Amino acid sequence: MSLFTKLSGAASGVAMLLSATVAQADVLFWSTQAKPVEEAQAMRENVLASAGEVDYQPNDGGPWLTRLNAELQAGSGTIGVLGALHGDFSAMNADDLVDLDGLGMSASDTFNNLAKLGTDNLQYIPWMQASYIMAANKEALQYLPDGADINALTYDQLIAWAGNVMEATGEAKFGFPAGPKGLKHRFFQGYLYPSYTNGVVRTFASDEAVTAWEKMRELWAVTNPASTNFSFLQEQLLSGDAWIVFDHTSRLAQAFNERPDDFVAFPAPAGPTGRGFMPVLAGVGIPRTAPDMDAAKALVQHMLKPETQIATLRATNFFPVVDVELPGDLPPAVKAAGDAVAKMSGSADANPGLLPAGLGDKGGEFSQLYTETFERIVLAGQDIRMVLDDHKPRLQAIMDASGAPCWAPDAASDGPCPVE
Amino acid sequence: MTTVATDVAPPDARKAGRYVYGAAVFLLCAWVLVPLYFLLINTLSSPESVNTFPKAFIPEFDLGSLLFFASFAGMLDALKNSILVALLTMVLSIVVGAPAGYALSRFEFRGKELFRMLILLTRAFPLPLLALPLAVMFIRTGLDDTVIGLAMVHTTLAVPFAVLITFSLFSGIPLELEEAAWTLGCTRLTAFTKVVLPLILPGITASAIFAFVISWNEVFAAAVLTIENRTLTAFLLTNLETSPLHLKFAGGFILVVPALIFIFAVRKYLFAMWGIANR
């Protein structure tokens, strides 16, 4: 019966430990951002240390939303402050978020309007921003096509460049975040479409869109085929599997921070209708079930302070949304990304887009449609015109169901954005 | 072809057979050990060498990645919670599963087949689907964010295995043994504890290990149902995916090692169930 003794010993040990857990009353910061362990650690130690008792818990989107919905349904909760992307907030019911007017605002009216989620009040407060840029291994620079300026590339030059690299090294070394967790859909929505069609929704199935997808195919021909497995291009930059890449600034940061002298960051390429690019916006909000409303509001205000914003920049590589003076000793990744974004938005042919807005819970479906279009046209090699015509009614259905009006660079619309 | 009567293969064939056998054993071992070894090497490597190829065969014993986790807030609590939940799941799933397995194998009752089917149904619904109503209920009943609450969820996941494993174990023990014990003065209970239980202990342990591993590996329910009392898997796994490579390896190592130690500790019960002598 020695096993029984062991088991009963274990059981009593368990009981003792169970009774020893003490509940704490920290403000729970429930976030989908700053998830990587190093960023989470930096958030806890550097950003939130001066904000009182805060329990920072980053999570995947699935558990994040499930837990939040459970608390909203149960009518009582432990989550104090939510940290998430604009898209996560816009998928929520605005009634479930506490109005936050008067707690602070970002310096950008565009962001502040997005944060109202179609209501008259701020539903969340813009917290930090980022964008997507290009980065390259310096070894690739020698293969730049003649006359090409790395800070003012066109898509044709990019394709030629990646082609030169492939010819010289025998390997396709353009890296594209087409992996399961990769942000490829943002490339189509914010970069390829605006650069070739000056739109995203209206021009989805236009003749210009056919040209855009033809270019995408050309680019894919010189892309590392393992890209369907790449989700964080910093890894491939560091391992040398890719020399020229496109990705989210914070998903390239590790490469610049580890080997700042080996890589360059530069603006996204331009097409016939300009240099399309789009921002990423994260915000902080408070669910109506927050246990300690005052503490939660204090934490939201803390996040907007200039010094917190700079600490956040160091921790996450997301840029401030309020006017701050950036110190000189920022990490290499921040400098590189900041320069590239500044050149991109300051370029003569800049064609800035906006985040998809007003899609509500259709946001996921909207992005999925662009991903499927990519998979069918580029990976499966199906006829471009056929696929676009096939997906056009689905896109229109999404726009009609959500009632979302057009956003830049599409021309404004009355009512749901039409797919032309 | 050779006839049935040939019981001695030609020496060549026997030698070849031994090679094939040896190669198969080697391959199977390599299948398990090589990934673990690379995990170890990369855990003990500096961030730079994690990204280089080919890999050194001997680790450089750079403890940077592991030390990062040593200072990572809440690691030890999470480890403790993980072990607690897994142990509770183990105990609960045996306490619930073994009697059900015994009943299924020893008694005839109406709806027995249906019951066997139904018990599998707890695995038919994906957790992300169940997690929302579960979490709502847990918040309302106060089970939310407790070790025991999460252990109950994990028990639900582990019980089908416990029932089916113990069912086949009990079925493998002839009823005559129990009947003989009854005629020799045992009650139903003592016959069970003195005769049947010693015979099936290895099997019980095996299903307990299943329960432990199921609980240890479960992420979604753990991530939704616990906040302050996170398990190690919920605490690390969701964050690791987006972390730099060297931390992925170190975190993976930290997740694997406790489970390995546990299985190593109880291996003799596993081997016993597979009919290999205790050693």
Write a structural description.
The complex is a heterodimer of chains A (420) and B (279). Chain A is 44% helix and 13% strand. Chain A has 420 residues and is of the alpha/beta class. Chain A folds into 2 domains: 157 residues, Periplasmic binding protein-like II (D-Maltodextrin-Binding Protein, domain 2, 3-Layer(aba) Sandwich), CATH 3.40.190.10; 201 residues, 3-Layer(aba) Sandwich (D-Maltodextrin-Binding Protein, domain 2), CATH 3.40.190. In chain A, strands 1, 2, 3, 4, 5, 6, 7 and 9 form an 8-stranded mixed beta sheet that branches. In chain A, strands 8-10 form a two-stranded parallel sheet. The termini of chain A are far apart. By secondary structure, chain B is mainly α. Chain B has 2 domains: 56 residues; 169 residues, MetI-like (MetI-like fold). In chain B, α3 packs across α12, α7 crosses α9 and α9 packs across α13. The mean pLDDT of chain B is 84. The chains are: A alpha/beta (420), B mainly alpha (279). At the A-B interface, α1, α2, β2, α3 and α9 of A face α4, α6, α10, α11 and α12 of B.
